[in-house]
Amino acid sequence: MLKIAVCVSGGGTNLQAIMDAIDNGTITNAEISVVISNNRNAYALERAKNKNIPAICISPKDYVDRVAFNEDFLKQLDSYQVDLVVLAGFLVVIPQEMIAKYRNRIINIHPSLIPSFCGTGYYGLKVHEGVLSRGVKVTGATCHFVDEGTDTGPIILQKAVEVKDTDTPEVLQRRVMEQAEWIIMPKAIDLIANGRVKVVDNKVIIQED
Ligand code: GAR
User: Fold this and answer.
1) What's the pLDDT score for residue 22?
2) Is there an atom of ligand 1 within 6 Å of 95 CB?
3) What is the pTM of this model?
4) Candidate of 177, 182, 185, 189 to mutate for ligand 1, largest count of ligand atoms within 8 Å of Cβ
5) Of the candidates 187, 190, 162, the residue with the CA atom closest to the CA atom of residue 176
């Protein structure tokens, strides 16, 4: 059974999709051991508590500096002894030490087709604003492993979504979530939980059934 920590900062719709996928069998061989947020008001924490999943807040505001926060974050995460860390809308820079320690065991969902509209400054609605202002006709979402760069790690799954002329950033964000994020994130977790994901030369190879 793959033990997972899910890190969240906001609403937690991706967390909800993961919990639903575990309940309905779309994800097998996995369980969520803990949900961690940097924001004590994140609705995602309520979603976890409603499911009786341990939900904790570790906020940088409660520490003297970033070094102290990073140290304690890693210590608390380690205490749950998870196999996989899932960043589901987690808007905190992951400490280098944690990336090294959890190499190819941290995955992130990004709301665009990487390498477009990603990297520093592209998060949440800003991604969809960028998509609309450039006028691309297709966007989507990417689930990838986390490495030292911003949105540069090996890509596990991507799914394309149509951009419409009438879209606002909010409308497009919702479509990308519904048609891509809530599908590929649970799918990636299921593939990992069932031993079907390998990283070779910085690229992901998915083994067939
Ligand atoms: C999602 O759209 C996710 O892709 C994005 O934040 C949102 C969180 O929503 N993540 C990033 O932009 C990371 N760079 P949620 O809390 O409802 O899952």
Assistant:
1) 98
2) no
3) 0.97
4) 177
5) 162
Closest ligand 1 atom to 118 CA: 14
**pLDDT attached to residue 209:** 75
pLDDT tens-digit map of 123-179: 999 999 999 999 999 999 999 999 999 999 999 999 999 999 999 999 999 999 999
Atom of ligand 1 nearest to the CA of 151: 14
Q: What is the C-alpha to C-alpha distance for residues 115 and 158, in angstroms, rounded to an integer?
A: 11
Residue count (the chain)? 209
- Give residue 49's pLDDT: 96
pLDDT tens-digit series, residues 28-53: 999 999 999 999 999 999 999 999 99
Name the nearest CA neighbour of 99 among 124, 73, 68, 121: 73
Instruction: Give the 3-state secondary structure percentages of the chain, helix then strand then coil, rounded to 5.
Output: 35, 25, 40
**Distance (Å, rounded) from C-alpha 42 to C-alpha 35?**
11
- Ligand 1 atom at minimum distance from 126 CA: 12
Burial of 93-122, coded b for 16+ CB within 10 Å and e otherwise, reads ebbeebbeebebebbbbbbbbbebbbeeeb
Q: How far is the CA of 184 from the centre of ligand 1 (A)?
A: 13
Whole-number Å distance, alpha carbon 71 to ligand 1 midpoint, is 25
pLDDT-based confidence at residue 191 (cuts at 50, 70, 90): very high
Residue nearest to atom 8 of ligand 1 (CA): 89
Is 110 annotated in the active site? yes
